[in-house]
Amino acid sequence: MIPVDEARQIILDGIEPLPLEKVNILEALGRVIGEDVTAPRNLPPKNNSAMDGYAVRAEDTKNATAQTPVVLAITEDIPAGTIPRQELRAGQAARIMTGAPLPAGADAVVRMEDTRKDGGKVYILAAAYAGLDIRMAGEDVAAGETVIARGTVIRPAEVGMLAALGRSFVFVNRRPTVAILATGDELMDIDEAPSEWKIISSNSYSTAAQVLETGGAILQLGIVKDRREDLIAKFQAASRADLIISSGGVSVGDYDLVKGIMQEVGNAMQFWQVAMRPGKPLAYGVIQGVPVFGLPGNPVSSMVSFEQFVRPSLLKMLGRKNIFRRHIRAVLEEDLEKLADLRYFVRGRVRREAGRYYVSSTGEQGSGILNSMVQANGLIVLPEAETMIARGTEVQVQLLDASLEHSDRPD
Ligand code: AMP
Ligand code: MG
């Protein structure tokens, strides 16, 4: 049996980010970019108007007020999307719309509200200064500037920037494909004829959902009987994936064959049993370079083990730097007891009140009580050394979702 931190270290030391692939910028959303993105040209490319109004030479308007307007001759109309045709000379203005490029000679825009049109002339009612209401070429991004650094997680803002720079494809770390298999003679799939003697392989689904939520792709290998030949065949098929997750068959029962199979298929075992609850029977190994997680069969153990070991591994493969869930400090609202020498992950419900976090357990904590996960938005992490944790103590909570980042009010 090894400590949680050591187990995590062994696993993560053996995992590298996956190679890069070229994807459409929308497919890059949420993924890690594997290249520095440099602007090929200025953004915006040309000086353009920030307002609907008149492009002018600021010098011409310096004495303009509402009482003493300056009158300028209109040379042309420049809606957005057209190219100016005439250079502006002294005494002239061009009618211009937001986003349209400035004509040569112009150095300011007087907005519509400060003008009055009269046939081919315009009355300028306010003085402009050079640069007024102009978006300068390169003011957003200058040619040659690195705008998005390698390693950045792509959000909608980066997608927009990539589009603005004319990039339709970028390099990101490939998504890990995760083979998922469930072991156990007692298991059936959702759609099979219901039987009082069988249980539905919910792990196949909770694990798949965890993989998808983390950004992996799934290769669903279904249910395998507790038989040597079947297990060997499935594990061999699974080694095409980037990572393998099986559930069940890692305890000390007569039909717990997974550890033996891992050893047989790939001489693969790295450790078995971690000093934690739930999740103690975890078996970990590597088959032909592919990490294999033998998660315990109990639904809660499986999910909690995934959180501690598989999720950070997948995020590392995806090229992420921050691969661990956020932890907060919360005030414990009940007394908790535990065994020494094991790290506990107690399913908890965290709430925020007057700027502080409070947490209570979600009740019955058996490793088969999936409902304790359904109620939870965090795992209360109780250190190995503790045995009694009193109500009112500040404890660490590993957040499992974004429920605390959203509010029922807009402010
Ligand atoms: P095992 O580790 O194989 O002894 O499994 C422990 C318990 O977990 C079993 O008795 C089942 O009740 C449950 N279990 C195992 N595999 C699954 C699964 N795929 N989905 C849901 N529950 C499971
Ligand atoms: Mg079993």
Commentary on this structure:
The protein is α/β, with parallel strands linked by helices and 411 residues long. 18% of the residues lie in helices and 31% in strands. The chain contains seven helices and 28 strands. It has helices spanning 4-13, 156-164, 202-214, 228-238, 258-266, 299-317, 371-374, and strands at 20-24, 37-38, 48-49, 53-56, 70-78, 92-96, 108-111, 115-118, 121-124, 134-135, 146-148, 169-173, 177-183, 187-188, 199-200, 217-224, 243-247, 269-272, 276-277, 283-287, 290-295, 327-332, 336-337, 343-353, 356-361, 378-382, 388-389, 394-399. A six-stranded mixed β-sheet has the order 7-4-6-5-9-8, with no helix packed on it. Strands 16-13-17-21-20-18 form a six-stranded mixed β-sheet, sandwiched between helices. Strands 22-25-24-26-28 form a five-stranded mixed barrel. Helix 1 (4-13) packs parallel to helix 6 (299-317), helix 3 (202-214) packs parallel to helix 6 (299-317) and helix 4 packs across helix 5. The longest helix is centred in the last third of the chain and has 19 residues, at 299-317. The model has no long low-confidence stretch (mean pLDDT 96). Residues 183-184, 248-249, 297 line the site of magnesium ion. Residues 182, 184, 187, 199, 201-204, 247-251, 253, 296-299 line the site of adenosine monophosphate.
